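Bit of a strange request maybe. I'm writing a small parser for structure token strings and I need a real example to test against, not something I typed by hand. Could someone generate the tokens for this chain?
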Amino acid sequence: MAAFAGAALIILGVFLLIMLLLSVKVIRPYQKGLVERLGKFNRILEPGIHFIIPFMERVKVVDMREHVVDVPPQEVICKDNVVVTVDAVVYYQILDPVKVVYNVSNFLMAIIKLAQTNLRAIIGEMELDETLSGRDIINAKLREELDKITDRWGVKITRVEIQRIDPPKDIQDAMAKQMTAEREKRAMILLAEGKKEAAIKEAEGQKQSAILKAEGEKQRKILVAEGQAEAIRKVLEALKLADEKYLTLQYIEKMPELAKYGNLIVPYDTEALIGLLRILQKVKDVPIPEPPKPPTGDNPGNEGASTNPSEDELKKLKNPME
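Reply from user aminoacidic:
Good idea to test on real output. This should exercise your parser:
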């Protein structure tokens, strides 16, 4: 009898231990628990340690973190009857665990099918070029449509991203050729603009060089003219200070040197020159030819003039610098 009582106590202890283990539930920080008592929703368990009634209450744990679901690729017809292959990813977060458990049976399947149908509707209203360049528009419209429907499921659609939009092979080849032609066009335009800019710069450089050369030539001519003017001024000043007879002697001394170059035309007053030579004849006994007689009636005032030099002229000739 004692052995039977001991075995009963052991069985009771094991049963109580099992019941205790079954009654303890630990909810993690990113989870919430839904307690069902006898098949009916009873309460929500927050993160921490909780006790339930074993065999009468059951706990469903819901993950409250943000999740991502991959929308499988599907073929979609654009507005211009081009078939493209589109896939996407959807990011969502559960806000109400009660709705997500009791308002939809298979949430993941529901959100995938919903994203596929809305993708077909949105892209079907757009042409191929708009589809390829309007990813942001597609993402915004798809997120808005999904958020409206999933609101009653207690889910918030946080983000939608189109992964790829693949047109048919022939269209891809045509697009590649178009892109190559566009790049070559831009390269040729840039090359032409570069040549144009280089030609403009070269022309501006030549223009500036010509201007500088002209300025230099102008300055050179001005300096040369100023030098010549200064030289003439000095010569004129020296001539003003020189004696007329002395200048005549210098003129006569240079005549033999000038005669070396052939026929010589002397632009000088003949009578004055003959008068000077007569003075030299008396001083140095050099024979001098008679002066030419002036034509009759041309200069009657000079017929009676004396050509013999005076004593004062002889003195001036001997001392020209006095």
